[in-house]
């Protein structure tokens, strides 16, 4: 099979998540050959496409700031963690590391960061479902790539306030009620503004989930390739039509 058809086979698997048996019939090859082609193409595609996950400088990000971020115009990245189910591992240690108490099943998690305009700029390695979001963020090194006084927007679950203070970063996240019974009007308004700004983050993650490979349980024999698969998917999302219309982009004068 020529290179073009091997690439097509790989993307059909990622997009539709057809079984290797079904793909073998479609491409007129054996199931084992089909599996081998997929496993061989993943590292090659990741190597080529990883350049499509750039790290823009602060000025470029601020010059393409969406209107929804008018009150958060120092935001460099918006972060979130995603989690999907995997096949139950055979080894006991792997079962312990991948079992998610929240999901009540075996999962893997990863951290994704994007600019306010919706460009994916960072995809971490995958971690077992037992890992906390805070650990994934710190271990991935994403905070160390930021410049002092950059703002990081996250959801409530990211307990990284001290880590941001140590690096002179500004943390933007919804307020906790703590012992308060009710938020003030100003606090409620700020939460609403953050939620509005984060809407397109969910859209980008949803685009990643449009790859059916992420919608189904990931087979254990493909876990080794998962980090490179994430790179491929993130790059394709970046190459797709933007999640925001250009009319929603506001240029800030530095």
Order of helices and strands: HHHHEEHEEEEHEHEHHE
Number of helix segments? 9
CATH architecture of one domain, by name, is: 2-Layer Sandwich
What coarse outline follows from CA principal-axis ratios?
globular
Low-confidence stretches: none
Kindly state the number of beta strands: 9
Overall average pLDDT:
90
- Relative helix content: 40-55%
Distance between the termini: 53 Å
| CATH domain class name of one domain | Alpha Beta
* Proportion of strand residues: 15-25%
Keywords: Metal-binding
GO molecular function, one term: metal ion binding
Pfam families: DDE_Tnp_4, HTH_Tnp_4
Cofactor: a divalent metal cation
Characterization of the model:
Keywords: Metal-binding. One of its GO terms (molecular function) is metal ion binding. This is DDE Tnp4 domain-containing protein. Its cofactor is a divalent metal cation. Pfam families: DDE_Tnp_4, HTH_Tnp_4. This protein is an alpha+beta fold. The chain has a domain of 168 residues: 2-Layer Sandwich (Nucleotidyltransferase, domain 5), CATH 3.30.420. Helix content is 42%, strand content 15%. The chain contains nine helices and nine strands. Strands 2, 3, 4, 5, 6, 7 and 8 form a seven-stranded mixed sheet that branches. The protein has a two-stranded antiparallel sheet with strand order 1-9. The longest helix is centred in the C-terminal third of the chain and has 25 residues. The chain is globular, with a radius of gyration of 20 Å. The termini are far apart. The mean pLDDT is 90.
């Amino acid at each position: 099979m020529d290179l073009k058809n091997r690439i097509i086979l790989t993307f059909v698997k990622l997009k539709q998540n057809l079984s290797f048996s079904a793909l073998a019939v479609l491409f007129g090859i054996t199931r084992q050959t089909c599996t081998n082609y997929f496993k061989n193409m993943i590292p090659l595609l990741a190597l080529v496409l990883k350049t499509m996950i750039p790290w823009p400088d602060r000025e470029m990000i601020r010059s393409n700031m969406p209107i929804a971020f008018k009150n958060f115009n120092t935001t460099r990245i918006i972060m979130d963690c995603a989690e999907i189910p995997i096949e139950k591992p055979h080894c006991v240690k792997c079962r312990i590391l991948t079992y998610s108490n929240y999901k009540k099943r075996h999962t893997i998690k990863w951290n994704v960061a994007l600019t306010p305009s919706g460009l994916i700029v960072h995809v971490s390695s995958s971690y077992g479902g037992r890992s906390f979001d805070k650990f994934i963020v710190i271990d991935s090194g994403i905070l160390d790539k930021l410049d002092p006084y950059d703002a990081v927007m996250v959801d409530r679950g990211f307990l990284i306030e001290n880590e941001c203070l140590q690096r002179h970063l500004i943390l933007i996240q919804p307020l906790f009620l703590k012992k308060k019974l009710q938020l003030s009007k100003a606090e409620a308004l700020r939460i609403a503004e953050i939620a509005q700004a984060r809407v397109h983050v969910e859209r980008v993650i949803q685009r990643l989930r449009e790859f059916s490979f992420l919608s189904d349980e990931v087979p254990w024999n493909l876990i080794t390739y998962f980090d490179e698969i994430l790179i491929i998917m993130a790059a394709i999302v970046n190459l797709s039509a933007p999640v925001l219309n250009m009319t929603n982009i506001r240029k800030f004068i530095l």
